[in-house]
Here is the input.
Amino acid sequence: MTDARLPVVIVGSGLAAWTVARELRKLDKTRELRIVTRNAGHYYSKPMLSNALAAGKSAAQLVNTPAAQMAQQTAVRLHAHTTALSIDRDRRVVHTSDGAIEYGQLVLATGAEPLRVALDGDAAGDVLSVNDLDDYALFRERLAHAAPVVILGAGLIGCEFANDLAQAGHAVEIVDPGPQVLGRLVPEPAAALLQRSLERIGVRFHLKKSALSVERDRGQLRLRLSDDRRLNASLVLSAIGLRPRTDLARNAGLDTDRGIRVDASLRTSDQQIFALGDGAEYEGVVLPYVMPIMHAARTIAAQLVGSNVHVRFPPMPVVVKTPVAPVVAVPPPATLEPRWQHTTSESGIESRCLSADGRLLGFALVGDAIARKSGLLAALGESR
Here is the structure.
């Protein structure tokens, strides 16, 4: 039974957390609401981290709304620089580095942390990842023009950073063990067009190669690859993916697998605890992008005020911010064997994934083909 006399407590302060707070305030102006976050709690667009450099933006300039102002706008009691340590589900208490906080309902928006490559060498600890504002500030501080930036990973984040860095005047090299860029998002012809476009602005690719070690070498870094090639770098950026943060939930006895498992109401295995964002797993899938977060936040807010609604995710395109060849993709279900049909032009490619009976299951658009996004989204919605 929900006790509305106790606050709603949200753990996290990213887009997912603040969107839940905003959506709840549209429905309930008076319920006590608290946010517990390990950082300052500023509101900013995380996707901007990978394309702010060419625009010359600092970490401070990426802040859309300072934490204190967000807290005032949403009538939130903000526990900044506070770590959630454990959850006592029987007593409905979150134990934090700043003391115990009772909750009536709890929302876990704990996000994800960067995966790291296992590397040898005395500079393995110098490899950076950019997952929040503090990471971005350190990344900008360490950038130099003396040698290339080497990016580990040719996925969405790696390609976005490569485009941004190259347009900001840096030499860039990408290392990835896979055979193509955007391996989880688009078919090979679409990937090839993006790769050629990035190569035209100076990005160099080392595909089907892995980084084995990073050593310090006269003020620079030196990587050894699996083909025994050596690369000099001023900075090494790891962009190989994210791992949902599930420790807090798992240690509390909640069901977890790839992420924190939730049902169609975004409830975890404890009916008074919800989860969304990069750390949540819905029907076996983690949905870390902006659109699913917005849909999930609205569903949770409705649940918090007693409306029994379920989330319904429409076809949600993934947008890759690579201005030299922008990409929009809706990958087909992973359980299907894809059958791709490609239409190419001088500056774009449209790839459609079709079922045996001709239904649209997914698509990838690169370059000027992204103009056909709306029509394909409508067709995809009709076929599902």
